[in-house]
Amino acid sequence: MDNNTPDTGPSLEESWGYDRKTLDYIQRASATGLYEIRGLGAKRRVPHFDDLLFLGASLSRYPLEGYREKCSSKVVLGTRFAKKPVELEMPITIAGMSFGALSANVKEALGRAASEVGTSTTTGDGGMTQEERNSSKTLVYQCLPSRYGFNPDDVRRADAIEVVIGQGAKPGGGGMLLGQKINPRVAKMRVLPEGVDQRSAARHPDWTGPDDLAIKIIELREITDWRIPIYVKVGATRTFNDVKLAVHSGADVVVVDGMQGGTAATQTTFIENVGIPTLAALRQAVEALEDLNMKGKVQLIISGGIRSGADVAKALAMGADAVSVGQGILMALGCNSGSYMQGGKHISAIADYTKLGTAPGFCHHCHTGQCPVGVTTQDAVLEQRLEPAVGAKRVRNYLKTVNMELTTIARACGKQNVHHLEREDLVALTVEAAAMAGVPLAGTSWIPGRQ
Amino acid sequence: MNAVAEAIAFDLASQKLRELNQFLHGDLGMVKQVRVLNPDGAHSIAVGVNAPVTINIAGHAGYYAAGMNQLADVDIAGNAGPGVAENMMSGRVHVHGFASVSAGASAQGGLLIVDGDAGLRCGISLKGGDIVVGGDVGAFSAFMAQAGNLVVCGDAAENLGDSLYEAVIYVRGKVKSLGADAQFEPMTDADHVTVAGLLKQAGLTHDPKEFKRIASARSLYHWNADANQEY
After folding, report:
1. Is the pLDDT of residue B3 over 50?
2. Which residue of A has its CA nearest to B101?
3. What is the rounded distance in angstroms from the CA atom of residue A299 to the CA atom of residue A303?
4. With a CB-CB cutoff of 8 Å, which residues 90-149 of chain B face chain A?
5. Residues A318/A283, Cβ–Cβ less than 8 Å
6. pLDDT for A174
7. In whole angstroms, what is the distance from residue A172 CA to residue A184 CA?
8. A415-420: which pairs have CB atoms within 8 A and are 24 or more residues apart?
9. Residue B229's pLDDT is what?
10. Structural domains in chain A, sorted by start
11. Which chain A residues have a beta carbon less than 8 Å from that of B127?
């Protein structure tokens, strides 16, 4: 080498189309003949609430004192038909996550945390455990296509029923729970042989379309004497039409789950390539309710990638009545943390992450049942790593923080009630987010596709 | 409502379904029998009942008749719409006519008897209940059925027992085709006893030895890359 030429090392140019991630996928597929199954939600970057900003109060708007003046965050869900709607202190609910995907300790922790802060938690595929019913003041009971563990006694002791059509991580797909998580208790609740790879149906067994769903909802109302609200949850795809159909079917509350929503176990290709972003789905859902003149009569819950008070504030400003949080809750419990708490001490979980071939911050191995911090497991040893009291405190702290952030932003926008946040308070940072959310690009009055 | 001793009647021509179901969910006191007159295909008749009461539906019922039944003995004089006895936990539901789609879907216990034919997906997601069909069953019957028994005295249409778990199907007539992972198996003495018992409860006199047994081959219980999704 000429002494005058700088040594820059070999010239390496990574392919955009065949980058390391794609190479790894192809080589893994060719080695195993299997598609990848994993937990959590989409990892790809899509337009999201991060791409929106609030226009705080100034001369043209009058702010509230951040810590002095009251800002209500209460919400009432299910006012359309139910004799006893769900009344919550904050518009931040805990999303449906199954016993099976999560341990009984976790379900208990979620119930305790939700009850302490005055919000609701939700069952999941697999039925209602005694632990979560006992610990939850307000418990939403899911009616899923599999009907695993679904029974009239639990229907009657639920505070609301959520008919699940689909979820954001896998709209159009049924669930799966791999054999390693089907322990004796889970198997018994689901009436399955222990250790089988459980498949959940993609379609409900006793109805097939929106006209049938309307009759199904009436049946659930009759069974519960029209006492509790009926939610309908859809994965975000053709959201404008789906929300309209859910309303026509008689839903009290529509839950829309965007593609960033999590799952305990689904094919990666499904998670990353099916569904639309939460931002786009929310705007479509609100427009559907407005089109039907049902805004405020049927409540809207949005979920899928809600992490912070800012996310909640933006969702409410766009027209949601409440949000639902799943992955954020798991992370509050310790998901992807390098350690877990045991007897008041932090214990490193790094070695167990390594055994799974991953590391804190990158783990999505919920499907294996080998969760290093004891959250998404049925293993008798691992599940002890999440102490219900510790988990409950962490989730309570997280929910309180998110709600405080929400009210902080609302006050800055001059609102005495978080539900007074409105689209006019928002601008977008990118053209894509502006188009999806239907708010102007910052510094302009331009809403792509609308003006 | 006409209360006579231990029997009571609701006439859906003049009374609301809500009144009937609310009554059935309350304290029935001495009432042992409830007659439902002029059902006229109404949906959700006698749903969510949790009491040892006899309910006679004097005609055709719509969707979800006796849905989620517990303990009650429900007799439907006519035909039943989709999802009759769906998610039944216990008790007995007897349809004297035909049953539409998804009869006995997800039933966890109890006995559903259909004297006539049952439509598509009879016994779908069955979780422990028993179903006896006097006539034929439609396609995809016992789809993903997990536990319990489906006894078919007539013929079965396409894809019987697709993706079965541990439920067992007995068919007296022809089977047009089996679904994924379902297979014929030899009848054992225990099978003959099971079929005989269920036929007796349904008031049928067929010889259990005329029935074929269909159960899961269990090849779908674990993911298998080499199956190329062709089961």
Report:
1. no
2. A206
3. 13
4. 102, 105-106, 108, 121, 124-125, 127-128, 143-144, 146-147
5. yes
6. 82
7. 29
8. A415/A64, A415/A71, A416/A64, A416/A69, A416/A70, A416/A71, A416/A72, A417/A71, A417/A72, A417/A73, A418/A71, A418/A72, A418/A73, A418/A91, A418/A313, A418/A316, A419/A75, A419/A91, A419/A316, A419/A321
9. 52
10. 49-334+402-427 (3.20.20.70)
11. 147, 191
Give pTM, 2 decimals. 0.95
Q: How far is CA B46 from CA A171, A222, A225, B17, B25, in A?
A: 34, 9, 12, 9, 9
Among B47, B115, B57, smallest CA distance to B85 is for: B47
The domains of chain B are located at: 36-227
| Cβ <8 Å between B70 and A152 | yes
B15 in contact with chain A, both atoms CB, cutoff 8 A? no
What is the band of B231 on the pLDDT scale with cuts at 50, 70, 90? very low
The DSSP letter of residue B158 is: S
* A123 token code pair: 């069952």
Chain A residue set in contact with B, beta carbons under 8 Å: 32-34, 146-147, 150-153, 155-156, 179, 190-193, 196-197, 199, 201, 205-207, 212, 215-216, 218-219, 222-226
The candidate with the shortest Cα–Cα distance to A245, out of A207, A208, A204, A213, is A213
Separation between Cα atoms, residue A21 and residue A191, nearest integer Å: 39
Angle at A253 between CA A251 and CA A259, to 5 degrees: 110
| Mean pLDDT per 10-residue interval, chain A, length 451 residues | 68 91 93 87 95 95 85 97 98 93 90 97 92 94 95 97 95 82 85 85 94 98 98 98 98 97 89 96 98 97 98 98 97 94 94 93 90 90 93 97 97 96 97 97 95 62
Other CB atoms within 10 A of residue A260 CB: 28
* CB-based burial, A327-364: b 16+ in 10 Å, e otherwise: bbbbbbbbbbbbbbbeeeeeeebeebbeeeeeebeebb
> Do A145 and A202 touch, CB atoms closer than 8 A?
yes
User: Hey, what are A285's tokens?
Assistant: 């859902």
Considering the domain B36-227 in this protein, what is its CATH number?
2.160.20.60
The end-to-end CA distance of chain A, in Å, is: 61
